Amino acid sequence: MDNKTILKQLKLQAALMELHDENSFKIRGYQNAVFNLDKTDLDLGSLSLAELEKIDGVGKSIATNINEINQRGISSALEEYLKNTPEGIVELLDMKGIGPKKIKVLWKELGIESGHELKEAANSGLVAKLKGFGEKTQQTIINALEFKEANAHKLHFAEAEKLAEIVIAEMLKITPDIKIEVTGALRRKMEVIEVIDLIVATDDIETIEDALDDAENFEQVIEESGPITWRGTYKELRIPIQLSFCEKEDFVKEQFLRTGSNLHLSLEVKDKLTLKDIVRQQNFASEKEIYAAAGLGEIVPEMREGTFEIEAAKNGKLPELVEMKDLKGILHNHSTYSDGKHSLEQMAQHCKDLGYEYLGICDHSKSAFYANGLKEDRVIQQQEEIDRLNEKLAPFKIFKGIESDILYDGQLDYTDDVLASFDFIVASVHSVLNMNIEKATQRLLTAIENPYTTILGHPTGRLLLRREGYPIDHKMVIDHCAKHNVVIEINANPWRLDLDWRWVHYALEQGVKLAINPDAHEMDGYQHMVYGLLAGRKGGLTADMTFNALSAEEIGKYFAERKQKIAANV
Ligand SMILES: [Zn+2]
Ligand SMILES: [Zn+2]
């Protein structure tokens, strides 16, 4: 069995143990083991019972569970817990913001056994009356359930993009004589995708439809399909597939019409005409020609949102967007010093191997105890190791950073002399996420005013499809960053993409630079850079305004000058 599946089962078991009031010492041991196994490089599926028992922190009982999962797909302990828990309760366990202890109360005291029942109870006010719940928790539950319902069939971009490739390959296998590409929100690189939208050019729709009928992986939903549109599912994917058929000579036009947002296509571009009008006038050989006929430069698919790009194109001010090759280094990454999977040296070596000039290491700070945040002595230890590695890996450079927790009142969590020991600081919120917009905004403003803050990390803390971010006044936050010369992060993790691309253009207008940061917790995490890049491009990000497009020398100078300024002002 693969590690991911094993860990998923172990995590579920830990939650069920809590739900069923097992001994708290036993639960703690279990949770710690799962936390450690999450970071292991061992292939758990290939180990014998004896080998499993030898892993640090894995006792006899966990080793037995893993061994059983390897042998029969599930452990007997988990089977036993599942037998004694209603299915709906198991589903509720992955609801954000409500732990197993509270779910147990809901189950035992109100007899709730499903999300549907819980929503009814919460809406009627019953939940708030339970001991230890109250109005606020009740509202949290309602929000979490509504959020879950609304997102049940959506995917984040990175996953949707991969699935689209699989579906395209399969389509080409069953009907080789077609041209097929992505379109819609997927082609615009939207952060959340509701449908895998594909355009298919063919001279023979009937043959394709017959092939799809025969293909066992495709399942049509007849009621939602039409004469030139096939809608349905692929294998057991949760997300719907849409295939729009067109004739080969109409491919450019049809893909164009299905790619741009409605606003992009219906804004006036020339002589009272919209792009929609222009594209229907004649056949074009390329999208570039369509824009040329409108008197505009070509607008890349990811920018076709109808926000600022038409105006920019009309004025001949389309930005030259940042590209992967412009990115010179990677800031905001974790190592085994806090909650990362790979050592500082592994993270640095891999970054260097990928061709980057520098790595900014930003392990968690001391308040993030749950993530093994660094106390002062370990900060010193890490910085000494960085000095050694910088000699060894030169000219590659590791910059000494930290992801400093923004405390509830906006303060950073080290004293000034410790803060002064870093080259740069990413300030991020990780706790007390339920503030109202005034408080949450003020908290960020205070952190931005701190002279040691170099970069504001993931500004809203959102996890796409999992939890909404805390509410903030984006304008005030961006304006404050402009005033205090603080860079804003576009966290490139596909679950975050925070700063949201919708605010990129405004930030650029205020002169705020953006850093594309993967927040990598393992070497493979660097692969997320591309998603942050796409989010930046959606908002018109240029290389000039991308902080980590600076070379190692330039960014080193920037950090040094900033530090001098702080020292002069203290
Ligand atoms: Zn963070
Ligand atoms: Zn981080």
From TrEMBL:
It comes from the Bacteria. Keywords: DNA replication, DNA synthesis. GO terms for biological process: DNA repair. Residues 329-408 form the Polymerase/histidinol phosphatase N-terminal domain. Pfam families: HHH_5 (PF14520), HHH_8 (PF14716), PHP (PF02811). CDD domains: PHP_PolX. This is DNA polymerase IV.
